[in-house]
Amino acid sequence: MNIRFVLNILGRVLIILGLFMCTNFIWVAVYNEATFWGHFYSCIITLLGGMGLYIGSSVNLKPSLGLRESYLTVTFAWVVISAFSALPYMFTQSIQGYENAFFESVSGLTTTGASILNDIEAVPKSVLYWRSLTHWIGGMGIIVLVVAILPMLRVGGYNLFKSEATGISYEKLTPRTASTAKRLWGIYVGLTFIQVVFLMLGDMNFFDSLCHSFGTIATGGFSPKNDSIAGYSPYIQYVIMAFMMLAGINFTLHYFTIKGKFKKVTGNDELKTYLSIIIVTGVIIAVVLIRNLDIGIEEAFRNAFFQVVSIVTSTGYITDDYLLWPTQGWIMIFLLFFVGASVGSTGGGIKVIRLVVAFKSFYVNFRRLLHPNSVIVLRVNGEVVDDEKVSNILGFIVLYFMTALLGTVVMIFLNVDAVTAMASVISSMGAVGPAFGEVGPTSNFFMIPDGGKYILSFLMILGRLELTTVFVLFTLDFWKD
C-alpha cells in the first residue's frame, strides 16, 4: 500500500483547510472581535501540519493510488479535517471541552447540523461563520475539491471521487474526473451565490445570508440564530425551502438542465419519486395541521412543507416544533428520517434511489412468482439494473439498519434514554440534525455523554461516507497484500 502518497494527499487536504480558515479573519476585522489570536493559532497549526505531511512524504514519492489507498485516504481525510476544524472553537474559547468542539466540527463537515451550543447568538460572528463554512466545505466534499484543483490526482482520482461522493454511483459528466469535479463545484458555488442574492432581497443581511446559504446548499442546517429560520419572514422561509429542494437533487441533473438535456431530467425516476414524496407528505401533514391546530391554510402548508423538505434533504433547519404537532404529523416526519435526498446531492440518508430500487425489486420478484417462465427485468431510468446491483443495494439497507440498531444499543449503555438514543443515532447517520426525545428540534446535543458524542461523531462520518468506505477498513482482506 502506498502510504506515502496517502500522507501526501492528507497534507494537501490540510493545507486547503488551513486556507479556508484564513477567511475567518475577514469577519474578525468586520466585527472588530477579540478572536484574532484564536483563529491565528488554528490557521498556523493546520497549515504547518499540512506542510509537514506534504513535505515529509514528498521524498521519492510515487503518485499511484489504488482502490485500497482511496478508501484509506478518504476515511482518514475526514477524521483529520474534523480534528483540525475543531481548533477555532477551542482557541477562541467558544466551545469548552475538545469532545464538544470535535462533535460540532464533525457535525458541520458531515452537514449533520446537530449542535451542542446552548446560546448560538452569543458566539463570535467569526466562529459562527467558520461553523457554517464547515458545512459548505463538507457538502460537496473536500476530496472532490482536491481532485478538481490538483492535476496530479489524475492517477487514481476517480477512485477517490467514488469513495467520497455519495450514492450508488456518480455519473461522470466528462471523461476526465477532474473536469467532472470542477463542474460539480461550479454548480455548487453558483447555487450558493444565487441564494445569497435572493435572501438579501428579503432584507436578510449579508452575513446571515451567506451563513444560511452555506447551510442550505450543503443541506447542513447550522444557523447563526437560536430559533433557526422561525424568526424570519415567509419570503425568507420560501426561498430557503426552494433551495433546500434544489440541493437535495442530484447535481448531475442540474448540469443536464444547464446543458438543455431536459429529457434526462424529466425522465429520472429518482427525481420523480423525490418530488412525489415531498408533495404527498407535505399535503397530508398540512391537512392534519389545518384540522387540528388553529392556524391559517398558508401557514399550515408553509410549516408542513418546510419541515418535510428540511428532513427529506437532511438539512435540519426548522420553522416549527414538529414534536408539538398531532401524532399523525410527527410520525410522518419520523418516517422521513429514513428516506434521505437524491444520489449525487449534498443530502444524507439512505437515498431515494435505493428505496426506488428496493421497492421495484419486491415488485419484480412478485411478478416472477406469478409468471415463472417470463423474463422480467428491473429498470431504473430506462436502464436494466442487474441482480448484483440490486443485491448490493438491499445489503446496504440492511447494513444501515443493523448499524443504527447497534449504535442505539451502545448509546443506551451510556445511560441515554431509549428514544433519545435511537433518535440521535438515526439523525447522525442520516445527517439530519434535529431529532426526537431530548435532542428534538428546539433542543441540542449538549446533554449527550462525552463518550456518546464520540460515538455519534463516528456515525456521522460513517453515514457521510455511506458505510462501506469506512467498514471496509475493518476487514482482514483490506490489509492483506
Task: Produce the secondary structure layout.
Blueprint: H1 3-22, H2 24-30, H3 36-57, H4 67-85, H5 87-91, H6 98-109, H7 125-140, H8 142-149, H9 157-164, H10 177-201, H11 206-217, H12 234-247, H13 251-258, H14 262-266, H15 269-292, H16 297-312, H17 327-336, H18 352-370, E1 379-380, E2 383-384, H19 387-413, H20 418-430, H21 450-464, H22 468-471, H23 476-479
Helix pairs in contact: 1-3, 1-4, 2-7, 4-6, 4-9, 6-7, 6-21, 7-11, 8-10, 10-11, 10-12, 10-13, 11-12, 12-16, 15-16, 18-19, 19-20, 20-21
Transmembrane segments: 9-30, 36-59, 71-91, 133-153, 184-202, 235-253, 274-293, 330-353, 393-414, 454-476
Keywords: Cell inner membrane, Cell membrane, Ion transport, Membrane, Metal-binding, Potassium, Potassium transport, Transmembrane, Transmembrane helix, Transport
GO cellular component, one term: plasma membrane
Which structural class matches the secondary elements? mainly alpha
Please state the average pLDDT score. Answer: 88
Number of beta-strand segments:
2
Cα Rg: 22 Å
How would you write the strand order of the largest sheet? 1-2
- The helix/strand order is HHHHHHHHHHHHHHHHHHEEHHHHH
Whole-Å distance between the termini?
8 Å
Largest sheet: 2 strands, antiparallel
Low-confidence stretches: 166-170
SS summary, helix count: 23
Characteristic key phrases:
23 helices; 2 strands; 65% helix; globular
Description of the structure:
- By secondary structure, the protein is mainly alpha-helical.
- It has a domain at 3-177.
- 65% of the residues lie in helices and 1% in strands.
- It is built from 23 helices and two strands.
- A two-stranded antiparallel ribbon has the order 1-2.
- β1 (379-380) and β2 form a beta hairpin.
